[in-house]
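Support reply, case 0932

Customer input (verbatim):
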Amino acid sequence: MALQAEVAELKTLVKFYEEQFRLSKHRQFGASSEKSEYDFGQLSIFNEAEATADARIPEPELIEVERHYRQRKRLVNDEHLPENLPIEIVEHDLPSEDQMCPECGGPLHVIGNDKRRELKIIPAKAMIVEHVRRVYGCRECEMDEYGAPITKAPVDNPVIKGSFASPEAVAHIMTQKFVMGVPLYRQEQEWLRQGLPLSRQTMSNWLIRCAEDWLEPVYDALHEMLCLNKVLHADETTLQVLREPGKTAQSKSYMWLYRTSGDTRHPIVLYDYQPDRRSKRPAEFLKDFKGYLHTDGYDAYHGLPEEIVIVGCWSHYVSSPNIRAEEPQALALRHSA
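Our regenerated output:
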């Protein structure tokens, strides 16, 4: 009976592995129209609109609320337009020669309006901003042999000295890359289609320079404010970095995350990239911090200075060897803190 049960179990496993193999082959070589709706491969690139369109679903109706427009709430496909969107009114009227009654020839008057609303999207466009700085001199002093003073109108410094980059252009490129996930080579193609040969090398230079000159000082100020809090949270995750000196592309690097607690008036979330997961990384980042640090059970956090008290959830701490070695009373005090 034991052998028969083992054979039945093995047959079940064989069927399972055969099905997994068949599904793997189907996903690899099957027709795209037969793939799952959750396949984010070629399907999402070429025929996403065809796969998700459904003509049976009516468009939501717009209603007017306090001179703004928003969508009527729906149970299915409930989507909302922001109430602060600007409104452009386009009026359509009859020509003056057509404002006569076709029956009696008398003048027509307005008895109502028909409205049709559309969502208008204006793509990003490029333009040149030319700064003209007035320079003033004194004609009386120009007659003096000692020369005349020159006064120039005040003007803001460029975001990058010697470059035609503007704050708006750099902010748009940063948002597209780091928020929307659009790589620079695709942005390069988009700008080229608009007649602007902006290379990815130029955009890369802009990103690095502006990050160093404008974002790092903000980061450092937020770091100081972060360490003034009494309760912080920390965690780390793996990250793959290409062309890192002394490391292969397949090796692991780490992004350490530090943030304020949920009851903080001004929330702060900071990322700290490091090539490894050594315990000195949080020690260096939190050298000015004194308080409670909420983490998981990773041992590296337990080597921090005594001014930092490690606290965490029970699921991590009951399995941590550092916590198991503590007295129950001390463990309860750490968690109550």
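We compared this against your earlier run and they match. Two observations from our side: Residues 81 and 239 are 36 Å apart (CA to CA). The first helix runs from residue 2 to 29. Please reopen the case if you see a mismatch on your end.
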